[in-house]
Q: What sequence folds into this?
């Protein structure tokens, strides 16, 4: 009966949380700029009686909202940062709201809002039934640059959790038992000497030459790294004019690998390449570690718990109009990529419903590490984490695209968000009431998968969050 009351509470309060998600979608803010989103969520949580701790990890837009007391302590992980360059109307053709502006192409307007909704719904049950336990919602900025949770984790705010629950907008209802790649984000700064490139080039020491030589060395390194490693870079400063030998140049690298050890080893080799490039060009080099995310460790016990709530939560009901709109959106995709996505959905047993599947699936690949990375990985090395995806976009739509921004601002995205909120709240309620054995199994699995390792932040102690001061861009449909 109590679980039915959770579902009923979420359905009765759906409109206000849909509005919150829409407001955040309409005010897209990139990493460390998420003032509107964090303040909007804090206001809703404070009204619901949550205690707020702000400026977590030294980040103005990071916060923790807490309700209740005692054990168990269950955390909901939320995110709300947008991506640069993905501004898009809710439309099936490319139509940016602001040219080259930011947009919620990863659905974090939905991700964080569902976490807030689930936390408040679970708190309502704690109050009504006089249950003991603590609910925490973690407002986490800057996931897209893979460092917000790392700075928070360095402050120790996740260490007393018994478990954490979260989700991510996707194109199916799915629990995946696969890890993600560990990552280090590092920017290199070369310092040389200017000179007239035509009249006296011999007097110059080109910082750009150093950057380019470093990149050549990194590209040769690709042959000699473990399978699954990734090396990406972009030149962030290449000089000011062709006729001036540049005295300053910089390049930003992402390094990925199956685990922290592999990435740390890759970083040491890249540092030697940078030093060599500086030696060859008679320049100097410094570097700045911007992020150091761990690989994500899935917890099948908590994933199973989340999936088990689908019967109580009911199914998502997409309308004929929504399915028609979804088909129009997928018509914009590369046909080969769309066929591959449909094939994967069929393999999961979800292929009969077209572009908006409403069933639930489990995917348990053996020994698979996904190519992407997330700072949620850090949390998964501190406490057991359960996570799922729900159908918020049509099959074939990839995150970090204009199509994703359109879908995550649509009624399809909001329905998937509401479904996620139900699953999260129901799973948390079970942990508070009859979940003692589930928590024991989740913690034992956590100890086995992490090999009882002690979490050590991969960012240097002296590294500080980059605090930005630009204003959010408001968009309209």
A:
């Amino acid at each position: 009966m109590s679980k039915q009351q959770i579902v009923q509470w979420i359905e009765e309060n759906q409109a206000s949380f849909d509005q919150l998600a829409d407001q955040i979608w309409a005010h897209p803010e990139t990493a460390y700029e998420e003032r509107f989103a964090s303040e909007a969520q804090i206001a809703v949580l404070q009204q619901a009686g949550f205690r707020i701790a702000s400026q977590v990890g030294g980040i103005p837009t990071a916060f923790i909202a807490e309700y209740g007391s005692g054990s168990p302590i269950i955390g909901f992980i939320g995110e709300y940062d947008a991506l640069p360059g993905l501004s898009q109307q809710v439309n099936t053709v490319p139509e940016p709201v602001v040219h080259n502006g930011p947009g919620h192409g990863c659905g974090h307007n939905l991700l964080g809002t569902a976490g807030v909704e689930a936390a408040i719904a679970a708190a309502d049950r704690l109050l009504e039934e006089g249950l003991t336990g603590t609910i925490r919602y973690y407002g986490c900025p800057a996931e897209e640059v893979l460092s917000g949770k790392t700075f928070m984790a360095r402050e120790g705010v996740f260490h007393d959790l018994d478990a954490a629950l979260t989700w991510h907008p996707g194109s199916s209802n799915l629990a995946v038992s696969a890890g993600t790649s560990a990552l280090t984000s590092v920017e290199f700064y070369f310092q040389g000497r200017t000179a007239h490139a035509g009249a006296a080039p011999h007097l110059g020491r080109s910082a750009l030459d150093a950057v380019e030589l470093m990149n050549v060395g990194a590209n040769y390194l690709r042959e000699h790294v473990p399978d699954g490693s990734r090396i990406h870079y972009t030149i962030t400063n290449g000089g000011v004019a062709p006729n001036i030998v540049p005295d300053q140049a910089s390049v930003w690298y992402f390094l990925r690998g199956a685990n922290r050890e592999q990435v740390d080893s890759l970083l040491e080799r890249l540092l030697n390449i940078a030093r060599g490039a500086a030696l060859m060009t008679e320049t100097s080099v410094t570097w700045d570690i911007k992020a150091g995310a761990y690989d994500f460790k899935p917890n099948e016990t908590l994933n199973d718990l989340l999936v088990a709530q689908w019967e109580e939560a009911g199914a998502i009901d997409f309308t004929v109009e929504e399915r028609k709109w979804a088909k129009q959106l997928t018509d914009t995709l590369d046909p080969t990529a769309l066929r591959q996505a449909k094939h994967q959905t069929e393999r999961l047993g979800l292929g009969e419903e077209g572009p908006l599947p409403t069933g639930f699936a489990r995917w348990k690949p053996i020994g698979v590490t996904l190519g992407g990375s997330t700072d949620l990985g850090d949390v998964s090395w501190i406490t057991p984490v359960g996570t799922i995806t729900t159908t918020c976009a049509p099959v074939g739509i990839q995150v970090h695209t204009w199509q994703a921004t359109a879908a995550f601002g649509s009624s399809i995205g909001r329905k998937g968000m509401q479904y996620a909120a139900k699953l999260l709240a129901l799973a948390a309620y079970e942990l508070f009431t009859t979940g003692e054995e589930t928590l024991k199994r989740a913690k034992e699995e956590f100890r086995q998968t992490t090999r009882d390792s002690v979490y050590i932040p991969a960012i240097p102690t002296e590294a500080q969050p980059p605090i930005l001061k630009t204003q959010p861009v408001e968009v309209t449909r």
Observations:
- The radius of gyration is 23 Å.
